[in-house]
Amino acid sequence: MERRTYLKSVGGSAVALTLAGCSGNGGGEGTTTTGTGTTTETATTITPGTAPGFPPFEMKEGDELVGFDIDLLSAVVAEAEGYQLGEWQEFAFDSLVPSLTSNKIDVIAAAMTITDKREQTIDFTNPYYNADQAILVREDGSFSPSKLSDLSGHKVGSQSGTTGENIAKELIKEGTLKESNYNSYDSYVFAVQDLQNGNIDAVILDVPVAQTFADQRPVEIAFTHETGERYGFGIRNGDDDLQSALNEGLAAVRDSGRYEEIRNKWFGSSNQ
């Protein structure tokens, strides 16, 4: 599996993380070496998991896994004392939490919103990104909703297991949206393709992802639904050492200006 490697410089010497095999339980160990090959400490290899198809957070360019989350977690773990990053594992979004709790992976990096429901099953790091939900439509002007109730009578899609799907389910529950008019997808790529093809009329998804699709395809954001969502890296309940290390790594990445560099690379200048 292709993976982007993060290198950092300390005191002018390049420090490379030597990756061990996929541990699946945070128990894998490797060594951190200097440019001269001298072993300086033993590090625990953690296996990251994500769900491609959510640009610009995680996506495939050919066989390579790239995106904001990929770069950010790599940078954070490089700053997390005692840990190093193993090979990325890819899943459908709604399979990430079960994969974490069954020890197939050790951390989720997938633009996952911190919610009370998810925190009943897993823990999160400190938030690293704020987002609301957007309603995406075709740019031909055939449907121009301005509020959620305008979705009534129209076919709507979102990705399975996401907060966008939660909004759709709430609309179904309250009677605004017919269940037969809702389509769930394994990936937002498929949902947006169906939108382009006229099979659905709107897609509910996170604002930064909606904007990326709008920049690349003949679709546009009709309106934004404010939710105050915050993304965090998911970890297993009780994995306090890893949680602390990742929080410290995230703080170090922010303080060093590396967070801003990664953010600007994938989103341009924004207030995050």
TrEMBL record:
Record's subcellular location: Cell envelope
Keywords of this entry: Signal
The Ionotropic glutamate receptor C-terminal domain, residue ranges: 45-269
Broad class of where this protein is predominantly found: other
Database matches in CDD domains: PBP2_Arg_Lys_His
Segments forming domain Solute-binding protein family 3/N-terminal: 45-270
Gene3D superfamilies associated with the record: Periplasmic binding protein-like II
Pfam families referenced in this protein's UniProt entry, alphabetically: SBP_bac_3
InterPro entries: Iontro_rcpt_C (IPR001320), SBP_3_CS (IPR018313), Solute-binding_3/MltF_N (IPR001638)
Protein's name according to its UniProt entry: Basic amino acid ABC transporter substrate-binding protein
UniProt source species: Halospeciosus flavus
